[in-house]
Amino acid sequence: MKLGTRLIFSFLLMVLLPIFLAGAVYLTVNHNRITKGKTAGQFYFSNNVDDLVSYTDDEVRTLEELARTFPDYFLNSDSQKQANDNLAKKNSYLVIRVGTKIVYDGASAGVHPQYNKLPMYGKLSNGDMLIIDLQTETGILKEIDFGKEDGKRGQAFVITPAGSIVRGGESVALYYVSWFVVIMIITGLVTSFLPDRVIMRKVALRQAATEKIREGDLESRIEVRGRDELSQLAESMERMRSRLLSDATQKVADEDSNRKFLSNITHDLKTPLTSIIGYSEGILDGIAADTERQKKYVGIIHSKAVDMNELLNELSEFSKLDMHEIPYHFEKIDATEYFDDFAQETEEELSGDGADFSYKNTLEPETEIMADPAQIKRVLHNLVSNALKYCRDDVKLSVSLRVLDAGDFIQAEFEDNGKGISPEDVPHVFERLFRADKSRNTGIRGSGIGLSIAKKIIEDHGGQIWVTSRINEGSTFYFLLKKVSEESQDTEDM
Predict the structure, then answer these.
(1) Which segments within 119-233 are labelled E, that is strand?
(2) Ordered domains of the chain (ranges, CATH)
């Protein structure tokens, strides 16, 4: 069932339920007007309806006071008429009996009581009432006893036809019930417009936002107001939109990166390939006629082929790492021992290239890291290779390696005094196949992918890698590797 249909049913219920309740109230009032029980031919009032009980209380109390003050009050014709006229305002009348004789009857036609059934003197206490049969309907009787000065006793009866009181009570009840029904109907009609203003409009806005997302417009933010179900839905849609926008942005960035990647590959492969073709054609065309020149051309061809092979191997290696096709073999390594061994190897390698190397390790003894020894060595070798490729011609290459304690990590710092990296290139040095444009025309060998491999390996180890550099002063590469915590060691020992 659609939301709009459910709302229609709900508001119809809001309108019909008050009408049903109002009808139930009316029937209850009509049914419970008077509950009667016969006792000696008389009907005593037993329903606790305030309007019936107190309808003539004020008039009766006034007459009781007059009877006490003026014992012959009810025997005076003027007093009788005056009292009856006052009672007539409440649709009541006065009957006076002295002994067994009716001396005054203020009833209009059709409402006379059965006089023989009027209660005897002292039958009713002050405040009591009883129901009596009139000629055409039921009446309510209240009695005021008085004594004549000559010693005879009399009774004044205040009689109210019950129909007038009940009709008055019903009128009041119907008045309020009617207003109640009117108010509820108006409320229902007013609230029937709320779905359009409060709900359907929100639904329309969400639908419009959904259409924009479906059409590919991810820039328009979905407005979220309130905490109802529709607002929660809008919030979820906004998170989805934001995620889709982020994914789309990342996709565009990846596509740009891939295009740049392919462009760089094309350039880096085309350059040596052009040389290979050129020098091989020189040999074939007889330009290199003598043996010495042929040997030179073949050497250049071999060198360029080696460059191409190095590039392809590193591309393959990076692809395997990125696709997780090369499994890592993590193990606990004594960091001091590991870096000491590497420093010794590197010193021998760089000294053979005429470079200086220095090493400093300030780690605590038996500091351990969880790492793949072969992959971390690849990172270190890539940093050494990068330093050799970008060394300066005017100064002797100097390389230093420092290993420091960095809380939960160890920090390795690899510093050289090479050509340095320009500030605009620093953020990109770890990108695939990135080399500064100027380096592509300087004859520097290298695929430009070694640093991206290093970054991938370090991040797969849960670490970080970054670089600082100054042109013609050198670069410093930093990376962090997480130490084996005492807690994890204790867990393994258990």
Answers:
(1) 130-133, 138-147, 153-161
(2) 38-165 (3.30.450), 327-493 (3.30.565.10)
